[in-house]
Amino acid sequence: MPWIYLALAGLFEVAWAIGLKYTEGFTRLWPSVATVAAIIVSIVLLAMAVKTLPIGTAYAIWTGMGAVGAVMLGMLLFGDPASPLRLACVGLVLLGMVGLKVTSGSH
User: Fold this and answer.
1) What is the pLDDT of residue 106?
2) pLDDT above 90 coverage of the chain, percent
3) Which end of the chain has fewer beta carbons closer than 10 Å to its terminal beta carbon, N or C?
């Protein structure tokens, strides 16, 4: 169950990271409310996951999911650069996340 909490926490992190763009500096009410709600849900789920998972592993995977998701959605939604080197770097983050999961034990 902690890995499910962590995966959901990561998805909500992506949501709030992308939501920041839509808040326009927290000047738009509803995108701001949704972004703050996603922040709270993400952190609560992360806290639930780290009851069992190693904090370093959980935090790195949580931030990695947020980073990869934000980069990919930035490319899709906002036209952020999608160079081969940038995509390779995203691949390295993913590889690191998988490595942490595999070496974290049987939790």
Assistant:
1) 55
2) 93
3) N
